[in-house]
Amino acid sequence: MAHISAALARHEGIGLIQWAPSGHVDARVEIATTFEEAAWLAQLMRRGGISHWLRSNPISGVFAAFQLLQKLRSAYRRRRDIDLYHINWLQCALPLPADGKPILITVLGNDMRLLRLPGMQHMIRRVLRDRKAAICPNADWMRPELERAFGDLATVCTIPFGIDPRWYELERRFDTNALPKWLCVSRLTAEKIGSLFDWTAPIFSGGKAELHLLGPMQEQINVPSWAHWHGPVTPDVLFSTWFPQVHGLITLSQHAEGRPQVMLEAMASGLPIIASRLPAHDDLLSQGGGFLCRSAAETRASLNALSDLRENRLLGQHGRARMRREMGTWDDCAQRYVTIYDELLGSSGI
Predict the structure, then answer these.
(1) Helix ranges, the chain (H)
(2) Which architecture, in CATH terms, is 2-162+329-345?
(3) Fewer C-beta neighbours within 10 Å, C or N terminus of the chain?
């Protein structure tokens, strides 16, 4: 979200007022978050976000969700001087005032689970009535369900996120590895790890390649002795240390993914990807840039195929070209949003 905010702030004609957790913010962005709200949001981030809080402790998580909606309601009501709401995540639209102002709602993968909660579609439909609205998932696989739920009240259009230009310039040095190194960048939960350890054990435990895990431990799971877990990592460290040296990115997640940004950055960097068959992964990789796997045999075959340096580079280059063409940069993403803003604010409607 910080990248979107900065790119929108760079766009002429946009006066951006932001309500969000504290962090680096472009000087052209006006902060709407109060000190008390920023402190509460910092606590929420330390808990792994509202989705993780709800999963790990449903009772206190529900209370936190109501607190979040209450704080959003206060923020919306004290800032009446806006022309359009740009809201990230469907649930953040629930407390909107009935002021008729247009809205653009960015939808991510977790929102699709939210839609299946009893009464949720009805509550969101109430927010959409009597105003111009655009619902913008960041991947095509979400569109059919969103159109069925809200297509009569809002335009549903995919707006893919952008990618920092530096990833397109990254130079890979993986051909110097004594053994192929594979990288999994993920929160460590049972769903996010999925079948990774079971399906890849014969290769990684047998000394044919190395598996490196990067990400916070959000559930207590057993990490095999042959898997190298390094804890959380920043994008800067991924860029400078990990992405240049690894053979590729691997994820066998069973989680309801949207379109993981780290996968986009990996492809922009020229890394091939091995991924489980999920709608989000199918949507991203069906046109090339990696392998989709349904079984242990397919996963091991993919790892073996990509140990070949020529095959690895060709697949990685194909993925990088796709990202340049289809995703572009965060400034490209901001322009896609601005086009929708103009249509929502125009007299002819969207």
Answers:
(1) 2-9, 35-46, 50-56, 58-78, 109-114, 120-128, 143-150, 165-168, 190-193, 196-204, 235-237, 261-268, 279-285, 296-305, 309-326, 330-345
(2) 3-Layer(aba) Sandwich (3.40)
(3) N
